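Let us practice reading a record.
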Amino acid sequence: MNVHAHGVGSRTDLPIPLGLALFGAGAAILITFAVLLLVWRTPRLGLASSGRPVPAGLQRLLDSPVFRRSLQALALAAAVLMTAVALAGPRETEQNLAPWALYVTFWVGLVPASLLLGPVWRVVNPLRLLHRGLRGLLASAPGEARLPRLGLWPAVPSLLVFLWLELVFPARAEPMTVAVFLLGYAAVHLALALWFGEEWFARGDGFEVYSALIARLSPWGRREDGRLVLRNPLSNASTAPSEPGLAAVVVVLLGSTAFDGLSRTEFWQTGPGAANDTLNGTLGLLEMIALVGILYAAGTRLSGRLAGQPGDVQPRRYAGSIVPIVFGYTVAHYFSLLVLDGQRTWILASNPFGLAGVDLFGTYGNTVDLTEVGPDAIALVQVGAVVLGHVLGVTLAHERALLSARRARASDQLPLVIVMVLFTVGGLGLLFGF
């Protein structure tokens, strides 16, 4: 199996007619919106100061520099091992651990890890450890004062590069490609961190920004005084700061999953993508991101105009409400990849360099168990994740509208809701080869 084949299913996997699924999904969004207008008339999700504090001892452990640097050292060792395996391990993708560890275990696994544990990559990012060892090379970080004004915009090209590699580049699964990416990514971000300071990683490292974004749906949060608390995950999402670039990050993530779905349709595979060339793939990826961005900007700006608010701030203001939609699409596109192809990581980890007679965990002779999850279950998870993500997105958008204007007029929010319905129907249609 090619690493690129996410295994997200086809129309035949759906145990109900596709038209019925699309109609039901769109209706669910509209019904949710109607119910919110009737019963959700004041903000309910709490403020950034809300939450139940965790035990002080647990917070001291989690915030301890020794604890964090130990985790970063373990992550660094794993990254060094993956790079070494990519350079010196088996040449065949099927037998090399590095592509499976990068594209499946790390990239896909970062989602459930961040959902359950919070912004986990901010804690274990090995580049932060390397930066601490290198920052003595410069007396100070010359660009540190300018970094806050950039917001999250630096993460956009970082994410685009990886998503282009994962979804477009024909040789993405070659071990040497993985090695070059890992080394190049580390070198670029370490150089930028030396210039802008350690805060660069929270704003420019695409993986760290992605993890923090998904963590907005975790039960872990921090009060304004820095106290670690447990609270309603929707409260975390509703209090997402309206930073410059946040809307661009969510649009890139949504647009990339839309292209992933498009690339599996008969239209693409027999048309623009038939040659599997880099140019058409790159153009397709950028066009889907642009389409999502245009729809999202139009919906949020029109909603703001109807509410009598400045239209230019609306995409940033409502970006937090798109986080559940990003999560829903991610689950829909990668669930089966993690459950099925994720087994290869643990199989190959038993003998990462493919040496004769080595079987560290007794798994090297195993094969992927394709019966771990059936096609009906995959399809139901896909539909459920997309619909649930949009229902939560509508809820957060309604909460944001209440916080912004203290009113809940249907006409003000309808443009954004219509865009979400289009995202739902279009996303499911692409997912199942519509």
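A brief commentary: Residues 45-376 form one domain.
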